[in-house]
Amino acid sequence: MQKIVEKLQNGLKGCVEIPSDKSISHRAVMLSSLAKGKSLIRNFSNGEDPISTLKLFEQLGVKAKYIDEKTLEIVSEGKLSAPLKALDCGNSGTTMRLVSGILAGQKFNSTLIGDESLSKRPMKRIIEPLKLMGADIKSTDFHAPLEIKGAHLNGIDYVSKLSSAQVKSCILLAGLFADGITKFTEPFISRNHTEIMLKYMGADIITEGKTVSIKKSALLPQEINICGDISSVAYFIVAALIVPNSEIILKNVGLNPTRTGILDVVKAMEGNIEILDKKNISGEDVGDIKVSYSELKSCIIQGELIPRLIDELPVIAVLATQAQGVTTIKDAEDLRNKESDRIKSVVTELKKIGAEIEETPDGFKITGKKQLKGGCEVETYHDHRLAMSLYVASLICERPLIINDFNWVNISFPEFEKLFNTLIN
Ligand code: S3P
Q1: Residue 78 C-alpha to ligand 1 middle, in angstroms?
Q2: Which residue among 38, 47, 113, 238 has the highest number of C-beta atoms inside a 10 angstrom radius?
Q3: pTM to 2 decimals?
Q4: CATH T-level fold of 22-225
Q5: Comparing 3-20+227-423 with 22-225, is the CATH topology the same?
Q6: Catalytic residues
Q7: Which region holds residue 405: left if phi is over 0, alpha if psi is between -120 and 50, else beta?
Q8: How would you label 346-360 residue by residue, b for 16+ Cβ within 10 Å and e otherwise?
Q9: Which amino acids bring their CB within 6 angstroms of ligand 1?
C-alpha cells in the first residue's frame, strides 16, 4: 500500500493514549502460557508480531480468548504440548528468539519458521548459548528454519558480547527448564521486561548489576496490565519536537529505565519534554509525557545508551536532521541485524528526501538543521520502524512524500495514522 503524506500546515495539538507495549505483550503471552491456570492480560497489543506469538502458543496447546477488544484470557495446563506443524513466527525476531529458549527444554520436537526478513536474521547468538546448555538445534547456517529437538538442559554461566534482551530472555527462559543455576551477563543492560515479569509471576530470579541468575521455577498465573509502548510513542515525541507550534500529551507510557534512552537524548538536545504522573503498574514504571516544538542542538549517542533506544534510532535520525550541528550515533552495529539493515536503509531513504546523513560501520553522522525536500518515493524494506520514521519526516518535507508498502506499520502499530490524525487540526 502506497501512502502519500503532505507537510503539516499547523502544529500537532492534543492528548493521545498510545497502544500497548509490543515487547511486554510477547512476554505476557509466553509466561502466561507456562503458568498453570488462568491468566488475564489487559491492554494486549493488536500488532501482528504479538499476534504471531499468541497463535504460536495456541498451537502448543494453550487456550486463549478475548474477554473484550483488548483483554485476553489465557488458560494453560502449565505445560506445553507437541505442535502438529511448523510454528510460524511471521516477521517477529522476539518470537523466534524467545520461543527457542522455551522449546529447547521441552519433551517434544518443534520447528520454527519466519517470513523473508526474519529468515535472513542471525540466530547464532541464541543457538550457541542454548547448545552450551545441552540444546539440540539444527539451522541453515544459523538462520531459520530452526529444528529444535527437546533436550535435557543444564544451567550455564554465560557472558554475552552483545547487549541483547532477546538473547538474554532466550537464555533465562531456557533456564526455567534447566538443572542448576543459569546466569547471563551482558556488557550494558538491555530491556529487562522478562526479568520483571518472571519475578512478578513467582520465578526464582535475581538481578545483580549486569548479571541475571535464574533457577528452574513454576510460574503462577497473574493479571498483567500492559502499558503504552515507548517505542511507538517515540514517533509522536519526534513529530511534536520538529513540527512548529506543536504541544501534545502522551498518556500511559511505559517508562522502564531500560527503555527511556530517547528521553535522555531529547533532554541532551535541549528539547521541551516533561514527565507527568509517574506510577508503577504490574512491576513496570508508567507515566504521561508532555512534549512541544523545540529548537534542538546536536548530541552524541553511544555506549550504554544504545540498548536503551535501539528501536528508536531510525526516528532519532529524523530528529537529528532538525538539530543544529553534527549528531553522531556510534556503537549501534547491531542495527544492521534488525527487520532491515537499519543503518543502510535509514541513510539511503533520508538522503533521498534531502537529509545530510553519512553511514558509518556502527551508526550515522547527521548534519542539521536541514530543510527536508520530499517530493519523491521512499521504500520501507519490510520494516515497520522505517515506515513510521519516514511518515514523521514527511510531516516537515516541502513537497509530499510517497511511502511505498506503508502497511508494514501493522507489525507493531496498526492505529498509527489514525492516532496521528486525532492531533491534526
Ligand atoms: C526486543 C529487543 C530488541 C529490540 C526488539 C525487541 C525484545 O532486540 O530491537 O525490537 O522484545 O526483547 P535486541 O535485544 O536483540 O537488541
Answers
A1: 26
A2: 238
A3: 0.97
A4: UDP-n-acetylglucosamine1-carboxyvinyl-transferase; Chain (3.65.10)
A5: yes
A6: 311
A7: left
A8: bbbbbebbbbebeee
A9: 23, 94, 164-166, 169, 190-191, 310-311, 334
Give the pLDDT score at 247. 98
Grid cell at residue 390? 519516514
Quick one: pLDDT at residue 425?
77
CA of 183 to the centre of ligand 1 (A): 19
b/e sequence 136-157, b meaning 16+ C-beta within 10 Å: ebebeeebbbbebebbebebbe
CA 311–ligand 1 middle distance (angstroms): 8
> CA 326 from chain center: how many Å?
27
Mean pLDDT of the chain: 97
Strand partners, 212: 184, 207
Report the CATH fold assignment for 3-20+227-423: UDP-n-acetylglucosamine1-carboxyvinyl-transferase; Chain (3.65.10)
Confirm if 316 and 262 have CB atoms less than 8 A apart: yes
Residues in the chain: 425
pLDDT at 233: 98
Question: How many CB atoms within 10 Å of residue 300?
Answer: 13
Q: What is the mean pLDDT of residues 28-49?
A: 97
Please report, as a single letter, which amino acid is at residue 53.
Answer: T
For the chain, domain boundaries: 3-20+227-423, 22-225
The preferred substitution site among 25, 53, 164, 334 for testing ligand 1, maximizing ligand atoms within 8 Å of CB, is: 164
| Residue 177: predicted pLDDT | 98
DSSP 60-97: TT-EEEEEETTEEEEEE-SS----SSPEE-TT-HHHHH
Instruction: Looking at the CA of residue 23, tell me the nearest atom of ligand 1.
Output: 11
Q: Measuring CA to CA, which residue among 61, 417, 55 is closest to residue 235? A: 417
Of residues 99, 29, 96, the one with CA closest to residue 64: 29
Do 411 and 52 contact (CB within 8 A), yes or no? no
C-alpha 301/C-alpha 261 separation (Å) is 9
CB-based contact 384:407 (threshold 8 Å)? no
Give the helix, strand, coil percentages of the chain, each rounded to 5. 35, 30, 35
Cell of 406: 506503508
